[in-house]
Please model this.
Amino acid sequence: MTKTLNKRKHNRSRCIVPIDGKSGDIFEHVITTDISKTGMGFISEKKIPVNKEIPIELDFEENGDPVFVIGKVKWVKAIPDSTKYRLGLNFETVLNGSKTRLNKSFRKI
Model:
């Protein structure tokens, strides 16, 4: 059995929540699996290409300001015995004013 090297800078927290996506969009029926302040993992019914950039709004608090990031798909793996895919995404760009809120949100987790 071979070990896989974990290249992540920050540990991911388990986070299983649905992602809101438009009907017919590639993000319809997507669920997150984990998240850190530098990226997230999710499961999708559609294969999303590596290097695809995705705008993401993260709501950590019900009445708080959301954090806006641009994520980039880093890897895609088919889930065995399934028609779904497991994906890893890095937050490439944290938009103006949001990096502090992102870091603050992860101090609470």
Helices lie at 99-108.
